[in-house]
Amino acid sequence: MVAIQEAGLDGFWLHRLLQEQGIESHVVDAASVAVSRRRRRAKTDRIDGEALLRTLLAWRRGEPRVCSMVVPPSVAEEDRRRIVRERETLLTQRVRESNRILGLLAAQGIHDYDPLRRDRRKRLEGLHTGDGRALPPHLKGELARALDRLELLLAQITAVEADRDRLLASELEADAAGPMLLRLRSLGPQFAAALHLECLFRSFTNRRQIAAFSGLAPSPWRSGSIEYDQGISKAGNPRLRKTAIELAWLWLKYQPGSALSRWFHERVGQQKGRIRRIAIVALARKLLIALWRYATQGVVPEGAVFKPV
User: Which of 39, 159, 206, 273 is 20 to 30 A from 80, alpha carbon to alpha carbon?
Assistant: First the structure.
């Protein structure tokens, strides 16, 4: 018996349950299954089920390009990724709560208050509106409750970061990818953990697989005499792609003498705007491949500088 299901919000529990029962299970990327290109195509559960069945039969016949099968992570690997993803969620909530506090104060003519400072409670007591009045009591109570939520988020972020650091420390003796990345300048604990837990724990055979997994692979369009580039595919892990692009900007700042930084400046020069944004994405792809080679094969990126011991 062979089963196939689409990757979705249900995660991989069904895939693991089927495997425990001795059933061969496959998880397919739904976006990779070919569909009709008509403007108005019918879509029902029956039609989708038949399409999955045809896809599975073609896959079993030995046609690997008919779809993209997902490689499910183990339970431990899936659980460890929660650390980086939870911190990202908490940071988003912290920014939202901080902006809400700043918005409430801006409506009263107050623009010099920072809710992230340690003395935020003390400074709140001494605030006055733009016309010299003390804060209204109900507004002051709302701000106090908003600070309660903000302080809870800050405490949770601290706890998550402590778990992340303990995870990296536990893998230091095993010479895993995360601790290895920490030795390079421009990579802190969050970037090292994100790259390790989102990407480098997997097994890749070549650089093209790395680029495809991150969604940084190019998407050419060639038909007859028409030939142009559509940009990156964006078909991979969005968190990994975001991390790689952010890291590329930091790499230019903290690794200016590396070969990758010189490659970027030689092609961009003094240009700004769109050309610079396109080049930074290309640098992110090259940097991700270089870090993969460093973490798996020990090949140090050319010209890279290590942190002082």
Answer: 206
